[in-house]
Amino acid sequence: MATAILDFGIEKALEQLGVSNHNKGTSTGSDWFSSEEKISSYSPVDGELIGTVETTTAADYEKVIQTASEAFKSWRVMPAPQRGEIVRQFGEELRKLKEPLGKLVSYEMGKSYQEGLGEVQEMIDICDFAVGLSRQLHGLTMHSERPGHRMYEQYHPLGIVGIISAFNFPVAVWAWNTALAWICGDVCVWKPSEKTPLCGIACQHIIAKVLKENNLPEGISCLINGDYKVGEMMTKDKRVPLVSATGSTRMGKIVAATVGERLGKSLLELGGNNAIIVTPDADIKMTVIGAVFGAVGTAGQRCTSTRRLIIHESIYDKVKNAVVDAYGQLRIGNPLDENNHVGPLIDKDAVKGYQNALEKVVEEGGKIVVEGAVLSGEGYESGCYVKPAIAEADNSFKIVQHETFAPVLYLLKYSGDIENAIDVQNGVAQGLSSAIMTNNLREAERFLSYAGSDCGIANVNIGTSGAEIGGAFGGEKETGGGRESGSDAWKVYMRRQTNTINYTTELPLAQGIKFDL
Ligand code: UN1
Q1: Could you identify the atom of ligand 1 that is nearest to the CA of residue 457?
Q2: What CATH number does residue 414 fall under?
Q3: What is the 219 CA–ligand 1 centroid distance (Å)?
Q4: Superkingdom, according to UniProt (predicted)?
Q5: DSSP state at residue 374
């Protein structure tokens, strides 16, 4: 019997969240539909089958879209601050269920319990943010070139927002999208990762309860489950004006092409290949904390994970030794046990990706400085636990250019001035997160300038991961260009309308055109 289930209260958490051994996987709120095929969710923590989830058929998808379209008609006319009140109540429910949901995230996905709690906190934070925003959603007013005319812009709800999320943030990324979409007046259809479907079931129960208590119609929050074919139902569907997809660059290119083909909108948050530049003026202690958490947190499976450390030659050995020492202290094991720093990878395919990276870096001429290993024996029965590894490498290596979703950190050396480090930092296809460790104002500002980091996120004296929800989250190049979460990311969930009103008795034309009848 799975010890994690017994020792860490997983059974109770599942019960509190309404997740059972066999779950229907298609829902429009309180209504759930049955089907024949199912996905099995195994925990990477102990290899146990946690539960099954029935997948969505084409006929059930149709019902979902019809119910969502119907719900949209009433939801969009509800004043935005009232929709904000619903999101506020959803945030309250999340506060009550933070521990069980954090546990399920940890058990189904494998991240540490602390990070599981952090993920639920991120959901709560975005709800709070969205509640305030529900009293804004403002456009601009402009001065018209014509006398007696008023010009302004307003934002209207879009319709159905399709959400495709990844296993690594199985609940927070859904909430980033839904909390904003809902206050904007949209309704949502969510396809969670096939690797973490139970997190989807739990979240759907939480929001369904809130919607029911407020007598709101079915369809404001819908859940569908299955593999890429179910995702494709949404990406191809003209009735879904916006598809927000988080995952690999490979997947994002397919989503972008399919949605683009029908001129829909897509919001993409794809791969990263994030680096920390460590300059001669860096605080080494801070560098070690930022780099190690960035590289091994979530077992290196964040889009924002630190994959490359670009270290100045003058302090290279010092930084290398400090980071290697810190790796020696890492405890790898059951992520529900708070004494451990690093949990398992999501599955055995991810373990293969990790092993492949370590083989390839050596083949290409790199040198391993902290050996990797796939752990076995007591506590490691799932076969998904690996030892975080470090290799000295070169930015030109194919494997360094590639995002490996595992705790493999590459050390790269630079010489001369900060421009050289920035070139290395920018010298990859992805552009999500970046950081510099320095106490030198000139270097920091150059890193942040127009000639500096080309990423969507650029930090000074903190690592690459762990962004707060208040800022827009996303990146450039192969990261896909989308922005989710804070700042004005809400605008993508709405359609902008420019309005010009003439309050005179004349009809002058713009650009001074004469058209006399
Ligand atoms: C992701 O990996 O897809 O900045 C999201 C972070 C988290 C979100 C990561 N707040 O690391």
Answers
A1: 4
A2: 3.40.309.10
A3: 28
A4: Bacteria
A5: B
Cα separations in angstroms, 110 against 12, 167, 171, 410 = 18, 10, 13, 23
Kindly report, residue by residue over 254-272, the tens digit of the pLDDT: 999 999 999 999 999 999 9
User: Is residue 466 lining ligand 1, measured as CB closer than 6 Å?
Assistant: yes
CA 229 to chain centre: 21
**75 within 8 A of 216, measured Cβ to Cβ:** yes
Residue 187 within a domain: yes
Which DSSP string do the residues of 476-505 spell out, in sequence order? Answer: EETT-S--EESTTGGGGGEEEEEEEEE-SS
Co-location of 243 and 333 in the same domain? no
Active-site pick, 115, 122, 269, 403? 269
pTM of whole model > 0.85?
yes
The kind and range of the H/E element at 221 are: strand 221-223
Residues 182 and 282 in one domain: no
Q: Is there a single domain that holds both residue 262 and residue 158?
A: yes
Q: Kindly report, residue by residue over 37-80, the tens digit of the pLDDT.
A: 999 999 999 999 999 999 999 999 999 999 999 999 999 999 99
Amino acid at 328: G
Helical (H) or strand (E) element with 52 = strand 49-54
Q: Of the residues 473, 483, 484, 485, which should be mutated to test ligand 1's pocket, given the most ligand atoms within 8 Å of the CB?
A: 473
DSSP output for 380-428: -TTS--B--EEEE--TTSHHHHS--SSSEEEEEEE-SSHHHHHHHHH-S
Do 335 and 256 share a domain, yes or no?
no
Q: Is residue 513 part of a domain?
A: no
> Among all chains, which residue has been given the structure tokens 């050596």?
362
* 438 & 319 share domain: yes
The angle formed by the CA atoms of residues 232, 234 and 238, to the nearest 5 degrees, is 120
* Ligand 1 lined by 174 (C-beta under 6 Å): no
User: Do 99 and 25 have their domain in common?
Assistant: yes
Pocket lining: 246 vs ligand 1, CB cutoff 6 Å: yes
Is 122 known to be catalytic? no
**What does the longest C-alpha to C-alpha distance in the chain come to?**
90
